[in-house]
Structures are given as structure tokens and as C-alpha cells.
Amino acid sequence: MVFAELALVGGLLIGGILLLTEGARFRAVYHILRKAPGPVRELGGSRGPSQVEGRAVAGAEGTVTAPLTGSECLLYNYDVERLDTVSGGWTTLTAGMGGVDFAVEDDTGRVAVDPTGAEFHFEDHRETVSPGDDMPERLAAFVAASSDVDPDTLTLDLRVTEVTFGNRHRFTERRLDVDEQVYVYGQATTGQAAEWGSDLVDSRVADSDALPAFVISDTDHRGTAWRIARPALWKVLIGLNTLGIVIVIGGLFLM
What mean pLDDT, rounded, does the chain reach? Predict the structure, then answer.
């Protein structure tokens, strides 16, 4: 009986933790989907949670260079992974992100965005390099400059043929490029007063503790909601199934 009680408590904890940890993601999805973004000009003077959609344009800081492809962009993140030949899974060797302040523009105006603290949900640009492959010049330069990534490739000349040993590496970069579609869900705050005749509204979108998430994406609001929800769906289903099984088993023991 003690074992059964412990199993029930453990099941409740596991199910509850999975639901709680992923619940914040679904709160963000709810806020993103409950109202479609309006024109940029409507953010003028706005305060509080806001969403905006339009074109990503450079601000006063210009652009940054993404490290894996050398592309000039506004925001990026990247990771380099190595395939574990034993487990079959990918191990992250190094990761990073960067960016500059930018603006979202539509036909009604522009609003400034401070991306500090944001979750980036951008399209993957991925290249996988197998042992013995010639690594693209830009990736080779990145690997040579990084202390975290080792090509770990060894080639043996058997005269008849060559045998290459090592691990596959996966290089993934995600970017927000200039003039690309962008969606932002964040906190509208007081912005810098614009010059006379400027189409820049007097608000600024940034992070806030009051938000379930501060999100910047290179698709529309519905596509952004799906990108956020998709990784958490299976965890929530496991949590619900675990709780359901625990409730049924608990009911049987209490009968």
C-alpha cells in the first residue's frame, strides 16, 4: 500500500511539473492569438502588452554580422552540434546570439524595438558536415577561431582506399534579415520623441516581467504561435496522460 501511495504521489508530481513548466508557453500562445496585430500607428502613445507586425528595418545601430554565414542581419542565434555515434543524439558544442535595436515598419509608420531578452523564433539555416567533407570556408574559419568546436576527423590512407573517422557536425543559424517579415509581442513603453515629419511613433517595444514571453519571429502571429506551441505539445500530452492514469489508479485503490 505504501508503494502504491508513493507511486501516486510521484505520478502527480511528474504530471503537474510537466504541465506547469510548459504552461507559460501556452499562455504566450493565448495572448498572441486572442487579437490580431493592428497598424503600427496605433502603437503611438500605447503602454502595456502589445503586438506588431510588418517589415524589419535597420535602426541607428545598423546591422550585425551573423557568425556562421557572414550574413548582415538585425538579429541572430546559432548553435553547433556534434552527433554522438553511441546514443544517436546531437550534443551542443557551442551556441550564441546577438543583434541590434531595429524598427518594425508598415504603411502607417515605424516603431522601435529593443530585442534584449527576447525569444527568437526564426527559420533554420542549417548545414551538416560529415567526416571527410570539405567544410565551407566560412564555417572552417568559425571552427578555427572557436575553442569549443573540434573537427575531430582522422583520415587513414590504406593505399587501396581511405577511411575517415570522426563525427558529423551540424551548424544551425537563425536570422532576422533586413526587410524581412517580422512579428513582435512585447511591452509598449514610452519611446524617444520623433523629429517633426518622422513616421516613427512615440512608443518602444521591449521586454517586461509582466509578459508571459517577449517574442520576435520572422513569420506572422499565427505562425509564431505554432512555433511556440509545437515543442511543448508532447510534454503537455504526457503530463495529462500521467495525471489521468494516476487519477484512475488512485480511484481503484480507494474503492
Answer: 79
